[in-house]
Protein backbone atom coordinates (compact mmCIF):
# COMPACT_ATOMS: atom_id res chain seq x y z
CA UNK A 1 0.00 0.00 0.00
CA UNK A 2 2.85 2.37 0.84
CA UNK A 3 4.47 1.80 -2.57
CA UNK A 4 1.12 2.29 -4.30
CA UNK A 5 0.55 5.54 -2.39
CA UNK A 6 4.00 6.78 -3.47
CA UNK A 7 3.22 6.02 -7.11
CA UNK A 8 -0.12 7.80 -6.86
CA UNK A 9 1.56 10.83 -5.28
CA UNK A 10 4.18 10.94 -8.05
CA UNK A 11 1.44 10.63 -10.68
CA UNK A 12 -0.56 13.44 -9.06
CA UNK A 13 2.47 15.74 -8.95
CA UNK A 14 3.22 14.96 -12.62
CA UNK A 15 -0.37 15.76 -13.67
CA UNK A 16 -0.25 19.03 -11.69
CA UNK A 17 3.09 19.97 -13.28
CA UNK A 18 1.82 19.23 -16.79
CA UNK A 19 -1.36 21.25 -16.12
CA UNK A 20 0.68 24.23 -14.92
CA UNK A 21 2.97 23.98 -17.96
CA UNK A 22 -0.01 23.91 -20.34
CA UNK A 23 -1.51 26.97 -18.62
CA UNK A 24 1.81 28.83 -18.88
CA UNK A 25 2.09 28.05 -22.60
CA UNK A 26 -1.47 29.25 -23.14
CA UNK A 27 -0.79 32.55 -21.36
CA UNK A 28 2.38 33.08 -23.38
CA UNK A 29 0.53 32.55 -26.67
CA UNK A 30 -1.85 35.41 -25.87
CA UNK A 31 1.05 37.82 -26.36
CA UNK A 32 2.07 36.59 -29.80
CA UNK A 33 0.95 38.39 -32.93
CA UNK A 34 -1.88 36.83 -34.91
CA UNK A 35 -4.21 38.93 -37.05
CA UNK A 36 -7.20 36.76 -36.16
CA UNK A 37 -9.42 38.13 -33.33
CA UNK A 38 -9.06 35.23 -30.84
CA UNK A 39 -5.28 35.68 -30.53
CA UNK A 40 -4.66 39.36 -31.22
CA UNK A 41 -3.79 40.91 -27.85
CA UNK A 42 -5.74 43.89 -26.64
CA UNK A 43 -4.66 46.45 -24.11
CA UNK A 44 -6.47 45.83 -20.84
CA UNK A 45 -3.83 47.33 -18.55
CA UNK A 46 -3.25 51.02 -17.78
CA UNK A 47 -1.80 52.63 -20.92
CA UNK A 48 1.94 52.36 -21.43
CA UNK A 49 3.86 54.97 -23.37
CA UNK A 50 6.93 54.42 -25.48
CA UNK A 51 8.47 55.44 -28.78
CA UNK A 52 9.13 52.54 -31.17
CA UNK A 53 12.63 52.58 -32.53
CA UNK A 54 13.02 49.64 -34.95
CA UNK A 55 15.48 50.14 -37.81
CA UNK A 56 14.28 51.59 -41.10
CA UNK A 57 15.53 49.43 -43.95
CA UNK A 58 14.43 51.27 -47.06
CA UNK A 59 11.88 54.04 -46.67
CA UNK A 60 11.54 56.62 -43.96
CA UNK A 61 8.50 56.59 -41.67
CA UNK A 62 7.14 59.66 -43.48
CA UNK A 63 6.92 57.64 -46.70
CA UNK A 64 4.86 54.86 -45.12
CA UNK A 65 1.08 55.01 -45.13
CA UNK A 66 -2.32 53.43 -45.61
CA UNK A 67 -5.11 52.86 -48.11
CA UNK A 68 -8.34 54.77 -47.62
CA UNK A 69 -11.78 53.29 -48.24
CA UNK A 70 -12.03 55.08 -51.59
CA UNK A 71 -8.83 53.39 -52.80
CA UNK A 72 -6.56 56.42 -52.44
CA UNK A 73 -3.19 55.91 -50.77
CA UNK A 74 -1.88 58.36 -48.16
CA UNK A 75 1.46 58.63 -46.40
CA UNK A 76 2.49 60.40 -43.22
CA UNK A 77 4.26 63.15 -45.15
CA UNK A 78 0.89 64.16 -46.62
CA UNK A 79 -0.10 65.36 -43.16
CA UNK A 80 2.84 67.64 -42.45
CA UNK A 81 1.58 70.96 -41.14
CA UNK A 82 -1.14 69.17 -39.16
CA UNK A 83 -1.06 67.31 -35.89
CA UNK A 84 -1.75 63.69 -36.79
CA UNK A 85 -3.17 60.95 -34.57
CA UNK A 86 -2.94 57.38 -35.84
CA UNK A 87 -5.14 54.91 -34.00
CA UNK A 88 -4.60 51.17 -34.55
CA UNK A 89 -7.84 49.39 -33.68
CA UNK A 90 -10.17 46.44 -34.35
CA UNK A 91 -13.97 46.50 -34.27
CA UNK A 92 -14.08 43.54 -31.84
CA UNK A 93 -11.53 45.01 -29.41
CA UNK A 94 -13.33 46.22 -26.28
CA UNK A 95 -10.66 48.74 -25.17
CA UNK A 96 -10.72 50.10 -28.73
CA UNK A 97 -14.47 50.58 -28.47
CA UNK A 98 -13.88 52.62 -25.32
CA UNK A 99 -11.12 54.72 -26.89
CA UNK A 100 -12.87 55.57 -30.18
CA UNK A 101 -15.50 57.94 -28.69
CA UNK A 102 -12.62 59.84 -27.06
CA UNK A 103 -10.91 60.22 -30.43
CA UNK A 104 -14.17 61.28 -32.08
CA UNK A 105 -14.55 64.00 -29.45
CA UNK A 106 -10.94 65.16 -29.84
CA UNK A 107 -11.30 65.34 -33.63
CA UNK A 108 -14.40 67.55 -33.27
CA UNK A 109 -12.76 69.73 -30.63
CA UNK A 110 -9.45 70.39 -32.38
CA UNK A 111 -10.11 69.88 -36.11
CA UNK A 112 -10.28 73.62 -36.73
CA UNK A 113 -6.85 74.03 -35.11
CA UNK A 114 -5.18 71.47 -37.33
CA UNK A 115 -5.81 68.06 -35.76
CA UNK A 116 -6.33 65.07 -38.05
CA UNK A 117 -7.20 61.58 -36.81
CA UNK A 118 -6.89 58.43 -38.92
CA UNK A 119 -8.15 55.04 -37.73
CA UNK A 120 -6.11 52.06 -38.96
CA UNK A 121 -7.78 48.66 -38.80
CA UNK A 122 -5.60 45.72 -37.72
CA UNK A 123 -8.43 43.37 -36.80
CA UNK A 124 -7.71 40.72 -39.41
CA UNK A 125 -9.19 39.97 -42.86
CA UNK A 126 -12.76 39.41 -41.66
CA UNK A 127 -12.84 42.63 -39.67
CA UNK A 128 -12.70 45.00 -42.65
CA UNK A 129 -16.29 44.11 -43.57
CA UNK A 130 -17.46 45.33 -40.17
CA UNK A 131 -15.81 48.76 -40.42
CA UNK A 132 -18.75 50.63 -42.06
CA UNK A 133 -21.15 49.52 -39.31
CA UNK A 134 -18.50 50.34 -36.70
CA UNK A 135 -18.10 53.85 -38.11
CA UNK A 136 -21.85 54.38 -38.06
CA UNK A 137 -22.21 53.04 -34.52
CA UNK A 138 -19.68 55.53 -33.14
CA UNK A 139 -20.45 58.41 -35.55
CA UNK A 140 -16.84 58.44 -36.73
CA UNK A 141 -16.12 61.41 -38.99
CA UNK A 142 -12.38 60.88 -39.41
CA UNK A 143 -10.95 58.56 -42.12
CA UNK A 144 -10.76 54.82 -41.50
CA UNK A 145 -8.11 53.00 -43.51
CA UNK A 146 -6.02 49.86 -43.92
CA UNK A 147 -2.37 50.37 -42.93
CA UNK A 148 0.45 49.16 -45.15
CA UNK A 149 2.27 46.13 -43.75
CA UNK A 150 5.45 48.20 -43.67
CA UNK A 151 3.84 50.80 -41.40
CA UNK A 152 2.47 48.15 -39.04
CA UNK A 153 5.85 46.44 -38.97
CA UNK A 154 7.63 49.68 -38.16
CA UNK A 155 5.32 51.05 -35.47
CA UNK A 156 4.18 47.79 -33.86
CA UNK A 157 7.19 45.51 -34.21
CA UNK A 158 7.87 45.46 -30.48
CA UNK A 159 4.27 45.45 -29.17
CA UNK A 160 1.14 44.30 -30.98
CA UNK A 161 -1.39 45.08 -28.24
CA UNK A 162 -4.30 47.25 -29.33
CA UNK A 163 -5.46 49.92 -29.21
CA UNK A 164 -2.27 51.81 -29.96
CA UNK A 165 -2.39 55.55 -30.49
CA UNK A 166 0.42 57.59 -32.04
CA UNK A 167 0.57 61.39 -31.96
CA UNK A 168 2.75 63.20 -34.52
CA UNK A 169 3.48 66.91 -34.44
CA UNK A 170 3.21 69.33 -37.38
CA UNK A 171 6.70 68.38 -38.56
CA UNK A 172 5.79 64.71 -38.68
CA UNK A 173 7.81 63.83 -35.58
CA UNK A 174 6.36 61.18 -33.29
CA UNK A 175 5.60 62.76 -29.92
CA UNK A 176 3.81 60.01 -28.02
CA UNK A 177 2.76 56.39 -28.32
CA UNK A 178 0.02 55.15 -25.99
CA UNK A 179 -0.55 51.40 -25.71
CA UNK A 180 -3.91 50.32 -24.30
CA UNK A 181 -6.64 52.53 -22.93
CA UNK A 182 -7.98 53.41 -19.50
CA UNK A 183 -9.64 56.55 -18.06
CA UNK A 184 -6.31 58.40 -17.90
CA UNK A 185 -5.38 57.74 -21.53
CA UNK A 186 -7.81 60.25 -23.02
CA UNK A 187 -6.40 63.05 -20.87
CA UNK A 188 -2.83 62.06 -21.73
CA UNK A 189 -3.52 62.01 -25.48
CA UNK A 190 -5.30 65.37 -25.31
CA UNK A 191 -2.40 67.00 -23.47
CA UNK A 192 0.06 65.79 -26.11
CA UNK A 193 -2.27 67.04 -28.88
CA UNK A 194 -2.60 70.43 -27.23
CA UNK A 195 1.15 70.78 -26.90
CA UNK A 196 1.72 69.77 -30.52
CA UNK A 197 -0.97 72.16 -31.78
CA UNK A 198 0.51 75.05 -29.83
CA UNK A 199 4.07 74.32 -30.95
CA UNK A 200 4.53 75.77 -34.42
CA UNK A 201 8.24 74.99 -34.54
CA UNK A 202 9.86 71.89 -35.96
CA UNK A 203 11.80 70.86 -32.87
Would you summarize the structure shown here?
This protein is of the alpha+beta class and 203 residues long. The protein has 5 helices and 8 strands, in the order H-E-E-E-E-H-E-H-E-H-E-E-H. Helices cover 37% and strands 19% of the residues.
Task: Give an account of the 3D structure.
With 203 residues, the chain is an alpha+beta fold. The chain has two domains: 1-30; 48-198, 3-Layer(aba) Sandwich (Glutaredoxin), CATH 3.40.30.10. The protein is built from five helices and eight strands. The longest helix is centred in the first third of the chain and has 28 residues, at 2-29. It is globular. The model is unreliable at 14-41 and 43-47 (pLDDT under 50).
Query: Any idea of the CATH topology of the largest domain?
Result: Glutaredoxin
How far apart are the first and last residues' alpha carbons, in Å?
A: 79 Å
**What is the domain total for the residues?**
2
Shape: globular
Strand fraction band? Answer: 15-25%
Find the count of extended strands (DSSP E, 2+ residues): 8
Amino acid sequence: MTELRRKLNRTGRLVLLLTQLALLLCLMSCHSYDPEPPSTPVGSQPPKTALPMPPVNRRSLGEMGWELTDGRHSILNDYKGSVLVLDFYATWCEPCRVSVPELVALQKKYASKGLKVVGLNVGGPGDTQKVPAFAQEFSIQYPLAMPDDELVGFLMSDRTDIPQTFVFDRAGVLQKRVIGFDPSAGDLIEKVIQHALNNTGTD
